[in-house]
Amino acid sequence: MAAPSSPPLVVAITGATGIVYGVRLLERLKDAGVPSHLVMSRWAVQTMLQETDYTVDGVKRLATEVHSPDDYGAPISSGSFLTRGMVVAPCSMRTLAAIATGSGSTLVHRAADVVLKERRTLVLLPREAPLSEIHLEHLLKLSRMGAVIFPPVPAFYQRPATLDDVVDHTVMRVMDQFGLHADGAGRWSGRTAAPLASRG
After folding, report:
1. What is the dihedral of CA 60, 68, 49, 181, to 10 degrees?
2. Phi, psi values for residue 51, rounded to 5°
3. Closest by CA position to 90, among listed 184, 179, 8, 167
4. Burial letters for 111-125: b for 16+ Cβ neighbours within 10 Å, e otherwise?
5. d(CA 104, CA 114)
6. Is the distance from CB of 97 to CB of 112 less than 8 angstroms?
7. Which candidate in 13, 57, 150, 196 could, as Cys together with 44 as Cys, close a disulfide (CB 3.0–4.6 Å)?
8. CB distance 38 to 66 below 8 Å
9. What domains lie within the chain, and their CATH numbers?
10. Are 153 and 169 in contact (CB under 8 A)?
C-alpha cells in the first residue's frame, strides 16, 4: 500500500505566552494545502483567551484534524501513523521538561515522544526568559536527541513594520525546517544598506 502523498504536520499549542505563533502556523499550513493535526493543552486555551481575540472553535477549524490532549488513542500517539513531524508552538517549560524526561502525561508529550523515537523532525519554540539552568539542561538534552530548538526570536534585518511581520518571519523559518517554503515574510538576500560610517 502506498504511503500518503502529503503526510500531516502535528501542531501542538501549549500554555506559554505566544499562542499567536501556533495559530499563525496553522493558518499558513492551511493556505499551503498542508494537512495538520492539532492538539491544544488546557492551559493553551486559557492563555489564548487571555492574550488574543481568537476563539477555540476558530482555531480548531484551521486544522485538518483536532485531538483532545487526553486522547492517547489518537493516531499521532503511534509511530506507525506517518507524519512530517511536529511543532510545539509555543512550548511551555512544563512541556519541555515532560518531553525531555519522557514522563509526559498528555497527548502533546506522547506525540512529541513518538516523533523523537521515529527520528522525525521535532521543532520546539520555547518561551521563557531568563532561562534557568534546568531549562538549559532540558534544551541541550533535546537538541542532542535531534529536536530543533527554535526560540521565536525576532529578526530585524527585514525591518518589520508590524507585529504580524515579526510573527510571520518566525513562522516562515519554522516551515523551512520541514521543506515547506512560504514566501512574503522577508528573507535575507545580502547586505544592501550603506555602512554606518558612510551615512550622513
Report:
1. -50
2. -115, 0
3. 167
4. bbbbbbeeebbbbbb
5. 12
6. no
7. 13
8. yes
9. 9-187 (3.40.50.1950)
10. no
Instruction: Report how far residue 66's alpha carbon sits from residue 3's, in angstroms, rounded to the nearest whole number.
Output: 21
Report which residue type is found at 166: V
3-class state of residue 35 by DSSP? coil
Give the C-alpha separation, 19 to 49, whole Å: 10
Cα(73)–Cα(152) distance, integer angstroms: 31
Q: What is the pTM of this model?
A: 0.91
Residue 88: all three cell numbers together:
510545539
**C-alpha cell of 189?**
538576500
Crossing angle (nearest 10°) for helices 133-145 and 93-101:
50
Among residues 177, 172, 197, 175, which one has the least CA distance to residue 187? 172
